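Thought: the user wants the 3D structure for the chain below. I'll pass the sequence to the structure tool as-is, report back what it returns, then summarize two notable features.
Action: structure_tool
Action Input:
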Amino acid sequence: MIAWLRQTGDVSPAALSTLLLRPLALNTLSVSLSFLQIGVTVGTFAIIY
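Observation:
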């Protein structure tokens, strides 16, 4: 974690935008997988019921 905070020199705008979009993409993926898991759970419950 500390290595990530270390200054590496000049940061280009493209690199900065990539760093900002990566957590957003991971958050979107996490939400999507949560909805998929809920759907599978509901579908499995409906089949068993």
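Final Answer: Structure generated. Helices lie at 2-5, 13-48. The two ends are 47 Å apart (CA to CA).
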